[in-house]
Design brief:
Distance between the termini: 7 Å
Signal peptide: 1-20
Largest sheet: 4 strands, antiparallel
GO biological process, one term: defense response to bacterium
Oligomer: single chain
Order of helices and strands: HHEEEEHH
Strand order of the largest sheet: 1-2-3-4
Shape: globular
Number of strands: 4
Helix content: 40-55%
Low-confidence stretches: 17-23
Organism: Penaeus vannamei
CATH topology of the domain at 42-119: Double Stranded RNA Binding Domain
Strand content: 25-35%
InterPro entries: Anti-LPS_factor/Scygonadin (IPR024509), Anti-LPS_factor/Scygonadin_sf (IPR038539)
Protein name: Anti-lipopolysaccharide factor 2
Protein backbone atom coordinates (compact mmCIF):
# COMPACT_ATOMS: atom_id res chain seq x y z
CA UNK A 1 0.00 0.00 0.00
CA UNK A 2 1.30 3.47 -0.86
CA UNK A 3 2.40 5.73 2.00
CA UNK A 4 0.06 8.49 0.80
CA UNK A 5 -2.91 6.11 1.04
CA UNK A 6 -1.89 5.07 4.54
CA UNK A 7 -1.51 8.70 5.63
CA UNK A 8 -4.91 9.52 4.16
CA UNK A 9 -6.52 6.63 6.04
CA UNK A 10 -4.80 7.66 9.27
CA UNK A 11 -5.98 11.25 8.87
CA UNK A 12 -9.54 10.07 8.22
CA UNK A 13 -9.51 7.87 11.32
CA UNK A 14 -8.17 10.71 13.48
CA UNK A 15 -10.69 13.14 12.00
CA UNK A 16 -13.53 10.80 12.89
CA UNK A 17 -12.38 10.75 16.53
CA UNK A 18 -12.27 14.56 16.73
CA UNK A 19 -15.44 15.27 14.81
CA UNK A 20 -18.14 16.62 17.14
CA UNK A 21 -20.58 18.37 14.79
CA UNK A 22 -22.91 16.90 12.21
CA UNK A 23 -23.86 18.60 8.94
CA UNK A 24 -25.03 17.52 5.53
CA UNK A 25 -23.83 14.16 4.26
CA UNK A 26 -22.46 15.52 0.99
CA UNK A 27 -20.38 18.32 2.47
CA UNK A 28 -19.08 15.92 5.11
CA UNK A 29 -17.97 13.43 2.47
CA UNK A 30 -16.33 16.14 0.36
CA UNK A 31 -14.51 17.52 3.38
CA UNK A 32 -13.31 14.07 4.37
CA UNK A 33 -11.98 13.47 0.88
CA UNK A 34 -10.17 16.82 0.84
CA UNK A 35 -8.90 16.29 4.37
CA UNK A 36 -6.74 13.44 3.14
CA UNK A 37 -4.66 16.03 1.27
CA UNK A 38 -4.57 18.78 3.89
CA UNK A 39 -1.00 18.07 5.03
CA UNK A 40 0.20 19.36 1.66
CA UNK A 41 -1.39 22.76 2.43
CA UNK A 42 -2.92 22.72 -1.05
CA UNK A 43 -5.87 20.82 -2.44
CA UNK A 44 -7.57 20.58 -5.81
CA UNK A 45 -11.34 20.94 -5.48
CA UNK A 46 -13.44 20.58 -8.64
CA UNK A 47 -10.38 21.35 -10.77
CA UNK A 48 -9.39 24.50 -8.87
CA UNK A 49 -6.41 25.11 -6.60
CA UNK A 50 -7.33 25.66 -2.94
CA UNK A 51 -5.35 26.39 0.23
CA UNK A 52 -5.70 25.34 3.84
CA UNK A 53 -4.17 27.56 6.49
CA UNK A 54 -4.11 26.64 10.16
CA UNK A 55 -3.09 29.06 12.89
CA UNK A 56 -2.61 28.23 16.54
CA UNK A 57 -4.01 30.43 19.30
CA UNK A 58 -3.69 30.17 23.06
CA UNK A 59 -6.57 31.00 25.35
CA UNK A 60 -6.54 30.23 29.09
CA UNK A 61 -3.57 27.87 28.67
CA UNK A 62 -5.38 25.91 25.96
CA UNK A 63 -4.37 25.63 22.31
CA UNK A 64 -7.05 26.46 19.76
CA UNK A 65 -6.69 26.01 16.03
CA UNK A 66 -8.19 28.48 13.57
CA UNK A 67 -8.41 27.24 10.02
CA UNK A 68 -9.33 28.92 6.74
CA UNK A 69 -10.02 27.17 3.45
CA UNK A 70 -9.94 29.25 0.25
CA UNK A 71 -9.92 28.59 -3.48
CA UNK A 72 -8.40 30.95 -6.05
CA UNK A 73 -11.36 30.51 -8.41
CA UNK A 74 -13.88 31.62 -5.73
CA UNK A 75 -12.12 34.49 -3.91
CA UNK A 76 -15.30 35.76 -2.23
CA UNK A 77 -15.81 32.58 -0.21
CA UNK A 78 -13.73 31.57 2.79
CA UNK A 79 -14.43 28.51 4.88
CA UNK A 80 -13.59 29.16 8.53
CA UNK A 81 -13.54 27.10 11.69
CA UNK A 82 -12.02 27.11 15.16
CA UNK A 83 -11.59 24.22 17.56
CA UNK A 84 -9.17 22.58 19.95
CA UNK A 85 -8.75 19.65 17.56
CA UNK A 86 -6.64 20.50 14.51
CA UNK A 87 -8.16 17.86 12.22
CA UNK A 88 -11.73 18.73 13.18
CA UNK A 89 -10.98 22.40 12.52
CA UNK A 90 -9.60 21.65 9.06
CA UNK A 91 -12.58 19.45 8.19
CA UNK A 92 -15.10 21.99 9.48
CA UNK A 93 -13.52 24.82 7.47
CA UNK A 94 -13.80 22.72 4.29
CA UNK A 95 -17.42 21.89 5.06
CA UNK A 96 -18.11 25.57 5.71
CA UNK A 97 -16.58 26.48 2.34
CA UNK A 98 -18.59 23.89 0.40
CA UNK A 99 -21.82 24.91 2.18
CA UNK A 100 -21.20 28.59 1.38
CA UNK A 101 -20.38 27.85 -2.25
CA UNK A 102 -23.54 25.79 -2.73
CA UNK A 103 -25.73 28.32 -0.89
CA UNK A 104 -24.28 31.15 -3.01
CA UNK A 105 -25.12 29.20 -6.18
CA UNK A 106 -21.48 29.26 -7.28
CA UNK A 107 -21.49 25.48 -7.53
CA UNK A 108 -24.39 23.10 -7.86
CA UNK A 109 -24.92 20.21 -5.48
CA UNK A 110 -25.18 17.80 -8.43
CA UNK A 111 -21.76 18.96 -9.70
CA UNK A 112 -20.23 18.39 -6.27
CA UNK A 113 -21.79 14.91 -6.13
CA UNK A 114 -20.36 14.06 -9.56
CA UNK A 115 -16.93 15.38 -8.59
CA UNK A 116 -16.95 13.34 -5.40
CA UNK A 117 -17.96 10.20 -7.29
CA UNK A 118 -15.13 10.76 -9.80
CA UNK A 119 -12.67 11.15 -6.92
CA UNK A 120 -13.89 7.95 -5.30
CA UNK A 121 -13.56 6.04 -8.57
CA UNK A 122 -10.09 7.45 -9.14
CA UNK A 123 -9.00 6.58 -5.60
CA UNK A 124 -10.32 3.05 -5.95
CA UNK A 125 -8.20 2.44 -9.04
CA UNK A 126 -5.02 3.59 -7.25
CA UNK A 127 -5.21 1.05 -4.44
Amino acid sequence: MRPSVMITLLVLVLAAQCNAKKKGKLTKEVARHLLGHWMNKSVTFMGHSCKIEVEHRFSHWTVYHQCTFTCDHWPNITGKASSRCKLATAEESMRDFVDKAINSNLIRRIDVERWLEEQRNGSATLT
